[in-house]
Amino acid sequence: MPRQKPLQASLMATPDDTEAQFYEALQRADLEQVMAVWADDEEIACISPGGPRQIGAAAIRGGFEEIFAQGGVNVRVVQVRRVVVGGCAVHHVLEEVRVPTEQGTHAGYVVATNLYAKTTQGWKLLVHHASPGGPAELLEFRDPSAIFH
C-alpha cells in the first residue's frame, strides 16, 4: 500500500496553521519548511529538551540540522491550551515523541510553549521552548480543572 502524503496546512492564517506546519516539518525532517514558520526577527529563540538556547535564525537552523541528521522526529501534539491576545498567541502543548529502542518503540512526553506573532506574512513562530515532561504533565493536561501558576 503506498504511503499517503501527510496533510499540510497551506497557509499561516492562524496560529494553529503555523503550528501544524511546524510539526509536519519536524516529522518529515524538512529543514526549509521548519525555517519558513519562524518570524523574520533577530531575537527568535528555540530551546529543545536538554539543549542550549538558540537565538536567531542561523543558530536555530544549525540546531535543526543536527536533529534532522538522524531523520524526522516522530512527534505529535496530543494536547494544546491556547491564549490569544491581539496579535500574539501562546500555545502550551504536550508533545508525544516516539523513539525506537531495543525493546520496541517508547513514547516520551515533552511540554512545550510556542509563541506566535501576527505578521504581514501570517502568524509566525517567535519562540519554541520545550522541556522533558512526565506523568504529572499528562494528568495536568487531561484535567481541565488543573491550575497553572
Automatic annotation (TrEMBL):
Signal peptide interval: none
InterPro entries (UniProt xref): NTF2-like_dom_sf (IPR032710), SnoaL-like (IPR037401)
Domain SnoaL-like: 20-132
Protein name: Uncharacterized protein (TIGR02246 family)
Pfam families per the UniProt record, alphabetical: SnoaL_3
